[in-house]
Write a structure and sequence with these properties.
metal-binding, seven-stranded mixed β-sheet, SWIM-type domain-containing protein, 374 residues
């Protein structure tokens, strides 16, 4: 009796799935009226008998759509998660990183199944809303879902597509047990120079040629920093931002369709307001999370010697390595500065050697003014 009551109570509060599907057209129209400029699309399957059945629902609110280019990085995370209701559907979502390295959801869609057709439909609408064109100058990070990889390749041929290293690591662990395999894999992931990557992979090839071939088949250009394109202000190898969003909405995913969509909307609205309040008093400083990253990098300064070779050019030498650095161009031969936009231990060593402010060399993407634009 308690089980039946627990099952019946939510229907009294939120209504049944049938009622929610019947109200989707009205819900979509209400979003268009109350949030001018927002994109809402509904797709149905038409049966031979004339009946219509729900297929897909997409929503992208106007404010995130406008502000993401000025206040967020040029990298988006794509992911899908299962919904927990009676009808087994999936939620596709796109999540950005703001100037403080925090998640910034942009758009989401409810679909019946995660297949190539639905991903193409979702990406088509997303490309129109965000103006991605063919993807030139942008990066996408996702898991290893084959249909998603194919859809991105067809619709965004010039985008840099990164695969989540965490997923690759988990699959590697299933096939090749042992701490050595995982240690070498993450070492190959984190290096920023192609030569260092080849050295790491050579170590794996000596240990186990089949494991080496397995990772080579996964296309290292999608999961190693050594091949990532500069200028994105993000050196992330994992799709943690999408996974974090999926965890936040885990309770909402148990609700009927409209209730779930409303909880997502309210979560986004409240989150933007709270983040805006926190950022009001920061002025033009860099964001707190970025400052913590810079302070963590500073801990390795004692291992390097700085030798000036020009007004803004330096050679930074460690115990076994040396790197060329240009403060004016904001480049280091280790490539990490160009990838993350914050700096590397070599750049911070040279900046400290010149008694200059480290934060003034952090990319403008990470300042509070950019943060407030989002």
């Amino acid at each position: 009796m308690l089980v039946r009551a627990k099952k019946y109570a939510p229907q009294l509060i939120d209504g049944t799935q049938v009622e929610h599907y019947a109200k989707l057209w009205s819900y979509a129209e209400e979003i268009r009226i109350s949030n001018l400029g927002s994109t809402v699309k509904i797709d149905v399957n038409r049966m031979p008998d004339g009946k219509k059945y729900f297929s897909k629902f997409y929503v992208c609110f106007d404010t995130p759509k406008k502000e993401w280019k000025e206040g967020c990085k040029k990298i988006i995370g794509l992911d899908g998660c299962f919904l927990k209701g009676i009808c087994k559907r999936e939620l596709l979502c796109v999540v950005e990183r703001d100037a403080n390295n925090e998640i910034y959801p942009i758009a989401w869609a409810v679909v019946c199944v995660e297949n190539k057709e639905n991903w193409r439909w979702f990406l088509d609408l997303l490309i129109d809303d965000l103006g991605l064109n063919l993807g030139y100058g942008y990066s996408v990070i996702s898991d290893q879902h084959k249909v998603l990889i194919k859809a991105v390749k067809e619709l965004l041929p010039y985008v840099e597509h990164r695969q989540c290293a965490k997923h690759i690591s988990q699959n590697l662990r299933k096939m090749y047990s042992g701490a050595q395999y995982e240690s070498i894999f993450w070492k190959a992931c984190k290096v920023t120079i192609e030569v260092d990557f080849k050295v790491s992979m050579k170590e794996l090839e000596v240990l186990d040629p089949s494991a080496y071939q397995y990772l080579i088949d996964k296309d290292p250009k999608t999961w190693s920093r050594a091949y990532f394109q500069p200028g994105r202000c993000c050196d992330a190898m994992e799709n943690g931002m999408s996974e974090s969003f999926n965890v936040v909405i885990v309770d909402a995913r148990k609700n009927p369709t409209i209730t779930m969509l409303e909880e997502l909307r309210m979560y986004m609205m409240e989150r933007v307001f709270n983040k805006k309040c926190k950022g009001l008093g920061r002025g033009n400083q860099i964001c707190p999370t970025i400052r913590e990253i810079a302070n963590e990098i500073k801990k390795g300064l004692r291992h390097y010697q700085v030798l000036p070779s020009g007004l803004n050019q330096f050679e930074v030498r460690g115990t076994t390595d040396a790197y060329e650095l240009d403060l004016e161009e904001r480049t280091c031969s280790c490539r990490l500065w160009q990838l993350n936009g914050i700096g590397c231990v070599h750049s911070i060593a040279a900046i400290s050697f010149m008694n200059r402010d480290v934060e003034s060399y952090v990319d403008k993407m990470f300042c509070s003014i950019t943060y407030m634009k989002a």
